[in-house]
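Feature request, filed as a ticket because there's no other form

It would be nice if the structure record came with a short human-readable summary line next to the tokens. Right now we just get the raw output. Example of a typical job, pasted below so the devs can see what we mean:
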Amino acid sequence: MQTSSTGYKDFSGQNIYVGLDVHDKSWKVHIYSDEFELKSFSQEPDADRLAHYLQKNYKQANYKLAYEAGFCGFWIQRAFSSKGINCSVIHAADVPTNDKERLRKTDKVDSRKIARGLRNGDLNAIHIPDRELELDRQLLRSRKLLTRDTTRIKNRIKAMLKLQGIAIPAAYKEGKTWSKKFIEWLREVDLQSMSGNLALQTQVKELVFLGERKKETDDVIKQLCHSERYQTNAALLQTIPAVGPMTAMILLTEIGDIHRFARLDELCSYCGIVPSCHNSGESESAGRLSRRGNSMIKDALIECAWVAVRKDPALLLYYKKQTAHMTGQKAIIKVTRKLVSRIRYVLMNQKEYVTGIIE
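Raw output as currently delivered:
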């Protein structure tokens, strides 16, 4: 460190590592140099303020910041990057932690761990999507939430009818439940009580509202599917059995650039199609799918795999081979991994899927 002619300390060529523990109303900041633990403080969630502090107190240094992925998304990373400051987003489970830090978990401890991990080179940054891709991704995730909320409302309505001993007419069963005519029937149900009728009709109105929002969302997603950014890859993905427009858009928005996955194992790990494992001495076992990975893609891929085995003879043959020594639930995960391999091939090589090919 040198002192310039203006009296400022010059940190040119030196590294300053900053760990952030971010919250809605405050950030806990911890700063390391290559040799020392320098400072710890709290501040308002303001990237400009922290950047000004670093540039004033550690002039000309190489700043390296990091924080854990969470509710705040990527706006903090983008704010610092726009100022030319290196900022990474870290998977929380990847931050090295000792037993003492697990027992004494505070904001200060968390920010110190991140800064220390940066200094030691122990942290791997997660991929940051561009803002447009992130917002498109949020649209697909919103659709999933709408579907989930719709299912919950339907279950509540059925439960309310059962509670009052009201049977659903046979005309509305076998695939016709929740049709427009069934909704009209629900609107005419009389529970002989002002309170009961209000409770039921409130649920029915919410069901209709969610249905309208879901239709609007689907229409926008279909437009995106035919946009310049997604059109080519979406069309290629839809040559794969069981992959429709919605699944194609889930894959494209969640994966982003397929070329960022150098190996199939990396893509499978991102998609959550890898088992947890335990290996000790001569004993080795594989457990359930790891909780890590992208659940949005994982759910979509497993659904596709169940359909694909009925449409692609090669995948059906592979599935039957696997079920000879494992359950169908485990075998379908094997099929899903093979499906991921083919999705990667289609996108990497820009070639349509061909059914019936045995690898």
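Something like this underneath would help us a lot:
The mean pLDDT is 90.
Residues 231-349 form one domain.
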